[in-house]
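Incident log, support desk, overnight shift.

02:14 A customer reports that sequence design results differ from what the structure should imply. Their input is reproduced verbatim below. On-call engineer (initials T.W.) acknowledged and began investigating.
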């Protein structure tokens, strides 16, 4: 092949290659144009579909919003109706008849532990102690209370004390000596005494104000019988209710509004029955006929017989405290359970995690928890526990581990917490009448519009003067809560006889108290409340607390007088925290107490590490105090309850 032919072939191949490339490029361009047109059509179609969908969504949202608006309006209307039902009208006015002070204003004594406190409609306060003694006190409006009379009723403790509905008659029951004693309250006099052939367990007055016979129901402690007596007659029963209960009756209460009595036996069986005017039959003025239509089997079902039961002044509610430490509020007429208030220790432990121990210090809260566990172990602790309603029947007042609570029964709100910071465990409460009687207000004159509107301060004695009377666990005092805080809470104010303190010593001390006081005074002669530590850098003035920490102060003072601390160094110094001394070896591992062994920790709620320069015993753990002590230079609250 010649050169010309070879060149021609090469040119032909080159031309064909270029043509092929152009054809491929042209086909690609055609394909791209078709694809673009197709995508454009598809985009227009999707746009139309999306616009239709958006339109539909807008219409659906508009319709749903209108429905939601209607539902919200209906919900608001229902909630407003509900809130209107739950709210108590004139609540602030009603609360004026309930004390608001955080601490008790005054306390008075018995010779022994007080078991009952009762306030009557005649402005008398009845207090009773476990030694069988009874005291009458008169509440004077805006003046406090005054002592009236003292009775030695029984040789044993009271099984029960009952007041009639208008506060004119009272009966005391003693199981051990098988006797009843009846008192005329306004005249503070005993008018009758019944010696029975059986052991009484409880009693209640079951008469209305206009009844001729003041009927008194008494239960037998060994059978299910309930015997009816004439309170102003002899000790012969006028009627016996035999077939109502099969077990001994432990609680009897009377509803004077409906003329209906409630009785509960030891198993928790609850029964309704009428007074003498209806021949002690089943009442006809209540809303149920068969007990299965009610919740009155609740106590029997749970095997939690009530310890106490109280009926509201308006006769529409009653509250019962069960052995399971739950307060149940019932509608009296229907027998339906309205609410249950959980007062168990477990409930308070759960609430304490959320409420920071109810505002109490850790040591104080732990002490109260330990006390509650101790109370749970003793079944007889709460046998005389008492709760009460206010005069309007809207609020329930009851003792708790954190003071006395006032709860609104309609909104379930705790509207008052009285005595939360007091260190005693209240068991019984009673609310005194806040407004005096008309005869007392105007000395018998009628109240008119002019007298009510007058600015004369002598006529303003009708301002509410609320008072709660309370008794506490293993305390021989009863406590008065009013709207006034105490003038002083320092116990030393009572000891000097100046009368500035709130704890009144109205009883002479017993021989045991005198002997104990003398024994306690002996070691105090060897201790002091002030000390000076001489160091090479200057003197340190120390204040001691022998009443709060007697052993620690006695140990320190005795060591100081014996020269035990002379020449010792501050063997441990932590900058910005504390300095420590008291170790003869200077190593931090030596030293012993004056008794030759470790002594226990002593804590007091008033003594805290909440500020610098606090002196505390050094230890190697709980109850390992010897001779070493330290002085803080900063607040160190993490040491509270440890040193």
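02:41 Re-run completed on a clean worker. Output:
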């Amino acid at each position: 092949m010649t050169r010309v032919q070879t060149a021609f072939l090469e040119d032909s191949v080159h031309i064909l290659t270029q043509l092929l490339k152009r054809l491929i490029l042209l086909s690609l361009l055609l394909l791209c144009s078709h694809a673009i047109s197709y995508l454009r059509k598809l985009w227009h179609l999707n746009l139309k579909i999306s616009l239709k969908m958006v339109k539909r969504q807008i219409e659906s949202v508009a319709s749903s919003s209108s429905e939601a608006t209607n539902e919200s309006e209906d919900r608001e209307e229902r909630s407003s109706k509900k809130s209107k039902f739950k709210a108590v009208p004139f609540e602030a006015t009603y609360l004026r008849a309930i004390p608001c002070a955080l601490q008790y204003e005054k306390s008075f004594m018995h010779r022994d532990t007080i078991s009952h406190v009762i306030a009557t409609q005649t402005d008398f306060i009845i207090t009773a102690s476990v030694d069988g003694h009874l005291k009458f006190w008169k509440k004077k409006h805006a003046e406090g209370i005054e002592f009236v009379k003292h009775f030695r009723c029984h040789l044993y403790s009271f099984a029960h004390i009952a007041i009639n509905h208008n506060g004119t008659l009272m009966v005391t029951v003693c199981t051990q000596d098988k006797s009843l004693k009846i008192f005329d309250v306004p005249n503070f006099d005993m008018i009758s005494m019944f010696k029975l052939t059986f052991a009484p367990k409880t009693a209640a007055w079951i008469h209305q104000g206009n009844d001729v016979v003041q009927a008194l129901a008494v239960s037998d402690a060994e059978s299910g019988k309930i015997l009816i007596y004439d309170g102003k007659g002899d000790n012969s029963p006028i009627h016996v209710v035999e077939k109502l209960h099969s077990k001994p009756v432990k609680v009897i209460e009377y509803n004077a509004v409906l003329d209906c009595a409630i009785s509960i036996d030891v198993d928790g069986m609850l029964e309704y029955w009428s007074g003498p005017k209806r021949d002690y039959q089943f009442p006809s003025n209540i809303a149920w006929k068969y007990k299965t239509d009610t919740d009155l089997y609740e106590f029997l079902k749970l095997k939690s017989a009530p310890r106490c039961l109280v009926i509201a002044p308006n006769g529409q509610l009653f509250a019962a405290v069960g052995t399971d430490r739950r307060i149940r509020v019932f509608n009296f007429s229907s027998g339906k359970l309205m609410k249950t208030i959980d007062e168990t220790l477990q409930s308070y432990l759960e609430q304490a995690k959320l409420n920071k121990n109810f505002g109490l210090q850790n040591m104080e809260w732990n002490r109260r928890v330990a006390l509650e566990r101790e109370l749970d172990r003793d079944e007889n602790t709460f046998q005389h526990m008492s709760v009460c309603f206010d005069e309007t029947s809207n609020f329930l007042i009851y003792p708790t581990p954190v003071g006395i609570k006032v709860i609104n029964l309609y909104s379930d709100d705790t509207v008052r917490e009285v005595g939360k910071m007091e260190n005693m465990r209240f068991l019984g409460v009673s609310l005194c009448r806040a407004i005096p009687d008309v005869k007392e207000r105007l000395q018998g004159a009628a109240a008119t519009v002019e007298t009510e509107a007058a600015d004369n301060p002598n006529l303003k004695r009708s301002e509410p003067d609320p008072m709660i009377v309370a008794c506490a666990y293993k305390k021989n005092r009863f406590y008065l809560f009013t709207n006034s805080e105490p003038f002083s809470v320092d116990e030393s104010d009572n000891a000097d006889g100046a009368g500035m303190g709130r704890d009144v010593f109205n009883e002479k001390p017993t021989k045991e108290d005198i002997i104990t006081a003398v024994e306690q005074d002996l070691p105090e002669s060897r201790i002091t409340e002030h000390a000076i530590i001489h160091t090479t850098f200057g003197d340190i003035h120390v204040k001691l607390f022998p009443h709060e920490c007697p052993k620690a102060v006695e140990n320190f003072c005795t060591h100081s007088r014996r020269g035990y601390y002379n020449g010792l160094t501050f063997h441990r110094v932590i900058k910005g925290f504390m300095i420590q001394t008291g170790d003869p070896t200077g190593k931090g591992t030596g030293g012993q107490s004056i008794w030759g062994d470790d002594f226990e920790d002593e804590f007091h709620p008033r003594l805290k590490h909440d500020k610098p320069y606090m002196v505390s015993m050094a230890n190697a753990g709980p109850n390992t105090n010897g001779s070493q002590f330290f002085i803080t230079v900063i607040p160190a609250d993490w040491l509270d309850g440890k040193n």
